[in-house]
Amino acid sequence: VQLQASGGGLVQPGGSLRLSCAASGFTLDDYAIAWFRQVPGKTREGVSCISRDGRIQYADSVKGRSTISRDNAKNTVYLQMNSLKPEDTAVYYCAAVQDNGSYDWRWILEYDYWGQGTQVTVSS
Predict the structure, then answer these.
(1) To 10 degrees, the CA torsion angle through 61, 67, 73, 74?
(2) Considering only CA atoms, which of 75, 33, 37, 35 is closest in space to residue 54?
(3) Number of C-alpha atoms within 13 angstroms, CB side, residue 64?
(4) What is the pLDDT along the chain (124 residues), one digit of tens a residue?
(5) How many Cβ atoms are within 10 Å of 99's Cβ, its own excluded?
(6) Which of 115, 39, 45 has its CA nearest to residue 77?
């Protein structure tokens, strides 16, 4: 059972990236998938979440600049990030929680599986 996060990199302010979270060993159909990010010395914070039936949440810091989506046929969730800012620099993690409708998407301990993280650096 594994989540593989990818798509990070170095991008200039105002640029875009698309992160991918691919699952292996289980299917994402019954799971809510979230993206978190973390910078050294700070707690991991929720960025966005998509439920098993497509309900979406965003942190205020990325609302209007990011789009989360899922492709169950590919067992993958995506996070499209546009208009990137230096403060978006962080390691981005994806996480999965079995979706019974009663989780708090921002609560780290809710999640059953975590990806290994992908570095996003926004700098000129």
Answers:
(1) -70
(2) 33
(3) 2
(4) 899 999 999 999 999 999 999 999 999 999 999 999 999 999 999 999 999 999 999 999 999 999 999 999 999 999 999 999 999 999 999 999 999 989 999 999 999 999 999 999 999 9
(5) 19
(6) 115
